[in-house]
Specification:
By secondary structure, this protein is mainly beta. It folds into two domains: 35 residues, no CATH class; 118 residues, TATA-Binding Protein (2-Layer Sandwich). It has two helices and ten strands. Strands 6-7-8-9-5-10 form a six-stranded antiparallel beta sheet. It has a two-stranded antiparallel sheet with strand order 1-2. It has a two-stranded antiparallel ribbon with strand order 3-4. The chain is globular, with a radius of gyration of 19 Å.
Length: 183
């Protein structure tokens, strides 16, 4: 039987089952491999911890969170992003397939093997511009993504053919090579 954790929720106490956790460490010829099997803490479908991000079922995963200020109003920014998703054209060096909308969607690799989720919010900024807060997260165990999560977002609003003018701030995006994205 899996032990239960007592959680207080608005005055009442709820019991939630804890998920089992196993950590496997293999050392072979100076190579360390660490695998996390199971989940840690109360059972939940997606892990993220950041409301700006869509979450991921994987404990260890790559992600990219950015903030972008646009000179254009939010309606124009959202229209460009939605048009690029609807065009079903991914110009990354290894093309994939976008689905969804500017507010929430996914990008699946061309071979169908991997899917990343992205989530964004658009808010009017003073001066008539728009601020985009967006996050893309891998849905499988990953550490290095070769700028994939950054490109998942950047390709929706940026590149040489973009009609938008913007300034980016990389909030939490360790890999962000624009040369890996569409140009």
């Amino acid at each position: 039987m899996v032990p239960a954790q007592r959680v207080r929720s608005r005055g009442s106490i709820i019991s939630q089952p804890l998920a089992a956790t196993a950590l496997i460490v293999l050392v072979a010829s100076s190579c360390l491999v660490v695998a996390v099997v199971g989940k840690v803490g109360p059972t939940r479908a997606l892990r993220g911890g950041d409301s700006a991000c869509p979450g991921s079922p994987s404990l260890i995963h790559a992600k990219c969170k950015i903030s972008v200020y646009f000179d254009q109003p939010c309606a124009a920014v959202e229209a460009v992003m939605d048009a690029r998703i609807a065009a079903v054209h991914d110009c990354k060096s290894r093309p994939g397939l976008y689905k969804g909308s500017a507010r929430f969607g996914s990008r699946t690799t061309g071979d169908g093997k991997y899917t990343d989720l992205f989530k964004s919010t658009l808010a009017p900024a003073h001066g008539g511009g728009c601020t985009l807060t967006a996050c893309s997260e891998s849905q499988v165990t990953s550490v290095v993504d070769f700028s994939t999560n950054f490109c998942n977002l950047f390709n929706l609003y940026g590149n040489n053919s973009s009609p938008l003018t913007f300034t980016e701030r990389l909030d939490s995006c360790p890999q962000h090579d624009k040369a890996s994205c569409c140009r």
